[in-house]
Write a structure and sequence with these properties.
With 507 residues, the chain is of the alpha+beta class. Among the domains are: 74 residues, Helix Hairpins (Orthogonal Bundle), CATH 1.10.287; 159 residues, Histidine kinase-like ATPase, C-terminal domain (Heat Shock Protein 90), CATH 3.30.565.10. It has 13 helices and 13 strands. The strands form 2 sheets. Strands 7, 8, 9, 10, 11, 12 and 13 form a 7-stranded mixed beta sheet that branches. The chain has a 6-stranded antiparallel beta sheet with strand order 2-1-6-5-3-4, with helices on both faces. The N terminus is likely disordered.
C-alpha cells in the first residue's frame, strides 16, 4: 500500500478541463439523440397522439355545448366554431329506434370518411361500438382500402388515415350520435426531409459542441490551474505568490481570499522568525552571564562572592521569566488560562507594581508618576491584572524618551451603559508607533524594530500577555500613538463599590 506523496499521486483523478470537455460532449450527444428520437423515430406516434387529444377535446366541447344549450341556432354556431378551431368534420344523427336521421354536418377537411364514405352499416357499427364502451369510442380508418379497423398501431399505408370519434348523448326517447372526423396525413416524406436536415444539424452541433467545450473549458479552468500552481508555491513557503481568478465571481472571490491568506501567512512567518531571533537573543544573554560568572568563580580563587552568586541568580530569574511569559502567551492563545476572580483594591495593585521600580528610579534616574483621585475596586484576577500593569509599565520604561519619564494615570469614567469604570493609561515619551503598525501591536509575534533598546527590562512578550488577560476580563483596551510623540496604552475595567471595611487611600 502506497503512502504519503506517492499515494496522493495515485489518487489523482481526471483534470477539471477534461471533465468540462466530457460534460459538454455528453450534453451535445444527449441533444442530438433527443432530436433524432423526437423528430424521426417517435414523430408519427407524437403526431397521432396530438391529433387524438385534439379530437377528444373537440368532442367533449361539443357534448358540453349540446347539454347546456337549448337554442338550436346557438348550438349550430358552436359546432361551426369547434369545427374551424380544431379542423374537424362533424356529423350529427338522431337515433330513434332503428332509424338514423341526419341533424347537421360541418365539412372542413378536403376529404373525410364520415361525409364521403359513410353508410348505414358503418353508422350501425359505430353506434354499437360506442354503446358498448359507455358512449365514447374512437376508431382509426385507413383510406388505402376504405375499411374501418380498430386503432392497433399497424401500418396504414400511404393513402393517409382518418380518425373518427363517436359520442352518444341521450335526449329523452332518442339518442344524439355525434361523429367527429380528423385527417392524418402521411409523414414518410416529412420524416425523410427531417432526416436530411438532422444529418446537417448533427454535424453542426458536433462542431459547435467541440469548439465550445475547448474554448469554455479553457477559460473556466485557466484561473483554477493558475491558482493551483500558485498554491503549490505557497505550500513550499513562497509567500510572494499572486492568485489571479479573473473569469467569474467565484474564482475572483477565491483568489482574493487566497491572496489575503498568503499575505497573512507571510507576515506571520516573518513575525515568528523575529520572535525566534528575539527569544534567542534574550536566552543567550543570561546564559552567557551565567556561564561566565560560573567559570570565574570556579577558576579564580576568592571570586565565589555573594555578589557574583546574586548575579547568577538574577540571570536565572530572567530565564525563568522568559520561559514563563512564553508559556502564558501560549495558554492565552489556546484559551486554557483560567482566572481566580476576587474583589480587590485595584489602585493598590498599581502602587505595588510601581514599588518594583524603586531601584530603577534611584540608580538610573527614571521618573515614574502615578496620578489617581481615589482608590477604586474591581472584580477580577488580582495577580493577572497586576501583571497587566507591570507589563505595560515595563513596556513604557523600555521605550520612553531621553527624559526617562513614564506617567500612569487612573481616571473614573462611565461605560456605554452608564456603569462606572476605571480608565488606566500608561504614557511614555518615546519614538511612538507608526499608524500602519498600530493594529499589529497586540497581535501574535509582533515586535517593534528596536525591541532590544532596553532588553534587560523585559522579555518582549508583555503586550501579548496583556491582550490575553484583558480579553479574559472582558475589558476594552487600545493604544494611541504618533511617531515622535510617544505612546498611550490604555484599558478600561468595570468598578465595584468599596467594602465597608476598606482602608482609606494612602497619601
Amino acid at each position: 500500500m502506497r503512502t504519503g506523496k506517492n499515494a496522493g499521486e495515485g489518487r489523482r483523478g481526471i483534470s477539471f478541463r477534461a471533465r468540462m470537455i466530457l460534460a459538454f460532449g455528453l450534453f451535445t450527444g444527449i441533444v442530438i439523440v433527443l432530436l433524432w428520437l423526437f423528430q424521426t423515430l417517435w414523430l408519427d406516434d407524437i403526431y397521432r397522439s396530438l391529433k387524438l387529444r385534439e379530437l377528444d377535446r373537440c368532442a367533449d366541447s361539443a357534448v358540453s355545448a349540446a347539454s347546456s344549450s337549448d337554442d338550436a341556432d346557438a348550438f349550430d354556431e358552436a359546432l361551426s366554431a369547434l369545427a374551424k378551431k380544431y379542423e374537424v368534420c362533424l356529423s350529427l344523427y338522431r337515433i330513434s329506434g332503428s332509424s338514423a336521421v341526419p341533424v347537421t354536418k360541418k365539412h372542413v377537411n378536403s376529404f373525410c370518411f364520415i361525409h364521403n364514405s359513410s353508410n348505414n352499416d358503418m353508422l350501425n357499427r359505430l353506434y354499437r361500438s360506442a354503446s358498448e364502451q359507455g358512449g365514447a369510442y374512437t376508431e382509426l380508418i385507413s383510406l388505402s382500402d376504405m375499411f374501418g379497423r380498430f386503432r392497433d398501431g399497424s401500418d396504414s399505408g400511404d393513402a393517409g388515415e382518418n380518425m373518427i370519434s363517436v359520442r352518444l348523448l341521450e335526449e329523452g326517447d332518442s339518442t344524439l350520435m355525434m361523429l367527429f372526423n380528423t385527417e392524418l396525413v402521411p409523414l414518410k416524406s416529412t420524416v425523410k426531409t427531417l432526416n436530411a436536415q438532422l444529418g446537417w444539424i448533427t454535424a453542426i452541433l458536433l462542431v459547435i459542441g467541440v469548439i465550445l467545450a475547448l474554448v469554455l473549458s479553457d477559460r473556466i479552468s485557466k484561473p483554477v490551474r493558475q491558482m493551483s500552481g500558485e498554491a503549490s508555491k505557497l505550500a513550499l513557503g513562497d509567500y510572494s505568490v499572486n492568485f489571479e481568478g479573473a473569469g467569474c465571481a467565484e474564482t475572483e472571490n477565491l483568489s482574493a481570499t487566497l491572496n489575503r491568506a498568503a499575505y497573512e501567512l507571510g507576515r506571520l512567518d516573518k513575525m515568528q522568525k523575529d520572535l525566534i531571533a528575539n527569544v534567542s537573543h534574550d536566552l543567550r544573554t543570561p546564559l552567557t552571564m551565567i556561564s561566565g560568572y560560573t567559570e570565574i568563580m570556579r577558576d579564580i580563587p576568592g571570586e565565589a562572592t555573594p555578589e557574583n552568586f546574586q548575579i547568577v541568580l538574577d540571570e536565572c530569574e530572567r530565564l525563568t521569566n522568559l520561559v514563563t511569559d512564553m508559556l502564558e502567551v501560549s495558554k492565552y492563545q489556546n484559551g486554557t488560562q483560567k482566572l481566580n476572580v476576587t474583589l480587590f483594591n485595584f489602585t493598590e495593585v498599581i502602587r505595588r507594581t510601581l514599588d518594583r521600580y524603586q531601584k530603577l528610579r534611584e540608580h538610573d534616574g527614571y521618573v515614574i508618576r502615578f496620578e489617581a483621585d481615589r482608590d477604586v475596586w474591581v472584580r477580577g484576577d488580582e495577580g493577572r491584572l497586576l501583571q497587566v500593569v507591570y507589563n505595560l509599565v515595563n513596556n513604557a520604561v523600555n521605550y520612553t524618551g531621553a527624559d526617562k519619564t513614564v506617567l500612569i494615570r487612573q481616571t473614573e469614567t462611565a461605560g456605554e451603559n452608564g456603569a462606572p469604570e476605571v480608565l488606566v493609561e500608561v504614557i511614555d515619551t518615546g519614538d511612538g508607533i507608526s499608524e500602519e503598525d498600530l493594529p499589529l501591536v497586540w497581535e501574535r509575534y509582533y515586535k517593534a524594530h528596536d525591541f532590544h533598546k532596553r532588553a534587560n527590562m523585559g522579555t518582549g512578550l508583555g503586550l501579548s500577555i496583556v491582550r490575553g488577560i484583558l480579553l479574559l476580563h472582558g475589558a476594552s483596551f487600545g493604544v494611541q500613538s504618533r511617531v515622535g510623540q510617544g505612546s498611550n496604552f490604555w484599558f478600561r475595567l468595570k468598578t465595584e463599590p468599596a467594602p465597608v471595611d476598606a482602608k482609606p487611600m494612602q497619601s
